[in-house]
Design goal:
Pfam families: Pyr_redox_2, Pyr_redox_dim. InterPro entries: FAD/NAD-bd_sf, FAD/NAD-binding_dom, FAD/NAD-linked_Rdtase_dimer_sf, Pyr_nuc-diS_OxRdtase, Pyr_nucl-diS_OxRdtase_dimer, Pyr_OxRdtase_I_AS. The chain is α/β, with parallel strands linked by helices and 474 residues long. 34% of the residues lie in helices and 25% in strands. Strands 1, 2, 3, 4, 5, 6 and 18 form a seven-stranded mixed sheet that branches. Strands 19-20-23-22-21 form a five-stranded antiparallel sheet, sandwiched between helices.
Amino acid sequence: MKHSHDLILIGGGVGGLIITSVAGQLGLDVVLIERRERLGGDCLHYGCVPSKTLIRSAAVAHQIRHADRYGLEPVASEVDLGRVMDRVRASINTLGEHDDPERFRNYGVSVRFGAARFVDPHTVQINGEQIRGRRLVIATGSRPAVPPIPGLDGIDYWTNETIFDQRQLPERLAVLGGGPVGVELAQAFSRLGSRVTVLQRPSSLLPREDPEMTRALERQLSNEGLSVATGSTVESVASEDGEICLQGQNAEGGFQVTADAVLVAAGRRAQIDDLGLEAAGVKVKNGLIRVDRRMRTSQRHIFACGDCCGPYPFTHVAEYQAGIIIANAVFRLPKRADYRVVPWVTYTAPELARVGLTEAEARSRGMGVQVARFSFRDVDRAVCDGETAGSAKLVIQKERLVGATLLGAQAGELIHELVLAMQTRLKVGQISATIHAYPTRAQVHRRAINTLYASKLFSPRTRSLVRWIQRILP
């Protein structure tokens, strides 16, 4: 019988690397296979790291042009996209040092580059060699989904895998898709100086989010100069003399948009097509590898994590799932995934952060909920910083949070107090009773919760009680 490695990991993104690091340092015989010539996955090279670096540069450019809002002289300057992308590349290179293959080889891991394909449930083939493993992990991530629009394949469109290689800022940019990737990059390029049009087929941006908050975000983007066309279906794309023409239909009839570049941000699809999952006996459902709560596939010795299996396409979820796999595959502990409290953030300005249920989702389940709101324009620190757009919206059942959405500056940082409250099942009164430093944006949480008590506190009954107390007690 061929030698069997303890663990074979297919995919060198965040999930695969966490499992590799732990298993290697524990002394297991581990093989890590990555189809590209570098480790780090989509998040490092094409997703979170480059996009957030770009967004920061765009925010600075926006502040410079609008410095008069802060009592300073505004400066109108041309943006050199090449220099901006050099900074993006520097961030990737700096963080990529943690994913150097030699680091993992020093743990005793065999790191190999090439496309892996299953031969049978325990064997994969890479570069003509067959490798056998006792347990295997699929962590191959996802890739951009490209809609079948006539003429789209005839232009050199961008995706998140190519946009960070661009050196020239387009005068006009059309973005196909109003999900997180689309709106983040659309706003970034608008702030850098492009005229941007977002074409979104659903009737709202970010359709998974609270409609009340996405409408507010859409207004903010429009106020910045972005053209947002929801309910718009692109039916054809054509290019002539370097100008791209997109035609389609919306509620008002036909439309036409001209652009110098097109970004396709129409969702993601799991990177599993060429893995030979049939030979492994691994079942797929709705385009994703099917896993149980212990992250096991239909073959119990084969695990999966990250975008290839869902249910959420976030780096932090892949990290969490990697921990579940380590417990089950390395320590043989029956740990199960729990997605009750999963936060996520869309890094627009203002940011949109979410955890748990929206108001509509809670009511559709028949839950009797209260909704607490508070605007950032009434939070002193937000006023001082000149960042008053947005609000907090808390969904509460029986004194406990079941969901929250924040739209505002640094919402991605602020959401974690609410995440912890949900995870530990704190009563919202405990958040209200917690001293929050002044002046901070975090005061928005207790201020929102306090609105629930105001009607009781200042009710006629309470006023009568207070008068009685004052008369009776010395």
